[in-house]
Design brief:
Elements (H helix, E strand, L loop, with lengths): L1 E8 L5 H13 L5 E8 L3 H8 L3 E5 L6 H13 L5 E5 L1 H11 L6 E6 L12 H17 L2 E4 L2 H10 L7 E3 L19 E6 L8 H11 L5 E6 L5 H10 L6 E5 L4 H7 L2 E3 L9 H8 L4 E2 L14
Parallel strand pairs: 1-2, 1-4, 2-3, 4-5, 5-6, 6-7, 8-9, 8-11, 9-10, 11-12
Helix pairs in contact: 3-4, 4-5
Length: 303
């Protein structure tokens, strides 16, 4: 019996969390695996995994320093040490590294879901220190880095100097719905997108697209998701005079209804790994318009 422990933050519900949820539910079918999940902070991921019957432990970061978090994680795993710790994102990678010190039998695996949110920008000094510590630990102490796209694998090998055999590609995937998306029968033609409202998603460009298309017919725009860029987007929508045709939906638990309203799915990101939202839209039969960046050309066939 192979014991595998995943470590991931769970206070958000975005691409990485959705992918991990699919992965762990799928791995449950493997009889020779014993799965355990450590989730930092409560949220939808914890609820989904508990509902699926997985062994879940939740550590509240608000009540623990990083050192205390490492101590509690090490204590939890001490009784029955896992064969593999599979971590997601830099904080979890550093936590996995610290927990595994002095235990030669533990193999470390990390999934790189995308490039940093500050991609193309220098970031703060604190962020640069964390980022360098993360990549150093991955390069020196982890057995395998799983990249979700060939583009990310290339970045690790060419830009960060990782050995080629250390970085493997496993593309993201989604479950295909039993029924294809029914065409929107509403009065307007709806163009939509979904994701965290972060700079790297470049949703102000989506507002610019909406402004160009305004007056070209009965077209409306819908954007699902929350994040720190919301106020900036609301201002851009007001300045463009699009309050009636550009709808910010906020966080949605049921994405099926959202996709069912759309005629076209659009992505405007500066960089992406393999966006779960694009896969979800394609799985429902929606045509996708997306930039030729990151791993997107690996899943969207031009034309």
């Amino acid at each position: 019996m192979l014991r595998v422990c995943h470590i991931i933050s769970g206070d958000l519900w975005a691409g990485a969390e959705v992918m991990v949820c699919h992965l762990l539910k799928g791995l449950q079918a493997c009889a020779d695996l014993r799965l355990e999940v450590i989730i930092l902070n409560e949220g939808r991921l914890e609820k989904e995994l508990r509902k699926a019957g997985l062994c879940v432990h939740v550590f509240d970061e608000g009540r623990r320093s990083f050192l205390k978090l490492a101590q509690d994680t090490r204590k939890l795993l001490a009784g029955n040490s896992p064969d593999i710790i599979h971590s997601h994102r830099y904080k979890e990678n550093l936590l996995a590294f610290l927990v595994s010190r002095g235990q030669a039998n533990i193999r470390l695996v990390s999934t790189q879901h995308g490039l940093p949110e500050t991609y193309g920008q220098p970031g703060s000094l604190a962020w640069q220190i964390k980022s360098r510590a993360n990549f150093f630990a991955l390069k020196k102490y982890f057995d395998t880095v799983v990249a979700v796209s060939e583009d990310i694998r290339s970045f690790f090998i060419k830009d960060l100097g990782f050995a080629q055999d250390k970085v493997r590609v496993v593309h993201n995937a989604v479950q295909v719905p039993e029924k294809a998306n029914q065409m929107n029968n509403g009065k307007s033609f709806v163009i939509g997108s979904s994701g965290r409202l972060f700079q790297v998603k470049d949703y102000p460009f989506m507002v610019s697209v909406a402004q160009v298309l305004s007056g070209q017919g009965n077209i409306s725009f819908a954007l699902a998701g929350e994040g720190p860029e919301r106020t900036k987007l609301e201002e851009a929508i007001r300045e463009a005079g699009l309050e009636k045709s550009f709808n910010l939906r906020g966080h949605l638990n049921d994405m099926d209804d959202f996709y069912r309203e759309l005629d076209v799915y659009i992505n405007t990101s500066v960089h992406e790994g393999i966006p779960m939202t694009i896969l979800e839209a394609m799985a429902r039969g929606l045509p996708v318009i997306a930039p030729k960046v990151g791993g997107i050309p690996e899943v969207v066939r031009d034309g």
